[in-house]
Design a protein that fits this description.
Blueprint (H helix, E strand, L loop, with lengths): L5 H25 L15 H23 L6 H11 L5 H4 L12 H15 L2 H17 L3 E2 L10 E2 L4 H27 L7
Antiparallel strand pairs: 1-2
Helix pairs in contact: 1-3, 1-5, 2-3, 2-6, 2-7, 3-6, 5-6, 6-7
The protein binds zinc ion.
């Protein structure tokens, strides 16, 4: 019976969430005081926004799984978890502390998360899933971001790039499915297919 790679999946979630919290901490510690203006959206809009994020994550994970079939089914769970957990960087503001705006919604974050996953887990499909989940989140969010946090806390609106993020998220999700499928074929031909 097929067993999803739960160990690798758990490791990805731990690395991703750990980095979100690390970037959050870095924002609090090294962000200039003038940049400590991060907040949370009004309470009543939070569930709807999280549902939107999870929904897009489901769509992305579903896209990968649709290409790969039954053995990609774990992505339907993994992608929404990663998509939503980027918002853990609102934690200080939610708890009433000053913080920078969205410290982990940063291009530096996605590069570091990709590298950390690639080095430790060595599964190309999961690297692509990390990028897809990040881009999917950025496609849904609006407003101000520090795209180079924690290197710079200059804020920009990334609204003009939302479509590009959505396209990137979909392409990475589909590429993850293709990678998985190719790995599976290699296995069926008798090679090592644990990509
Ligand atoms: Zn967000």
């Amino acid at each position: 019976m097929y067993r999803p790679p739960w160990k690798k999946i758990t490791a990805v979630v731990i690395i991703y969430v750990g980095l979100v919290l690390l970037f959050t901490l870095l924002g609090v510690v090294i962000g200039p005081e003038s940049a400590q203006v991060g907040g949370t959206r009004p309470d009543e809009t939070i569930p709807g926004h999280l549902a939107e994020l999870a929904g897009f994550g489901l769509l992305l994970g579903g896209g990968s799984a649709a290409i790969y079939g039954r053995k990609g089914v774990h992505l339907i769970v993994l992608v929404p978890i990663l998509t939503v957990s980027l918002d853990l960087d609102h934690l200080p503001a939610y708890l009433g502390y000053a913080e920078t705006i969205r410290p982990a919604h940063s291009l530096v974050f996605v590069v570091v998360a990709f590298a950390a996953t690639a080095i430790t887990i060595k599964a190309v499909d999961l690297d692509l899933v990390v990028v897809s989940a990040f881009m999917g989140h950025m496609a849904v969010d609006t407003g101000l971001f520090a795209p180079f946090s924690p290197l710079s806390f200059q804020y920009y609106s990334l609204d003009p790039y939302r479509l590009a993020f959505a396209v990137g998220a979909i392409l990475c999700a589909l590429a993850a499915g293709v990678v998985l499928r190719r790995g599976y074929r290699t296995v069926s031909l008798g090679g090592r297919g644990d990509v």
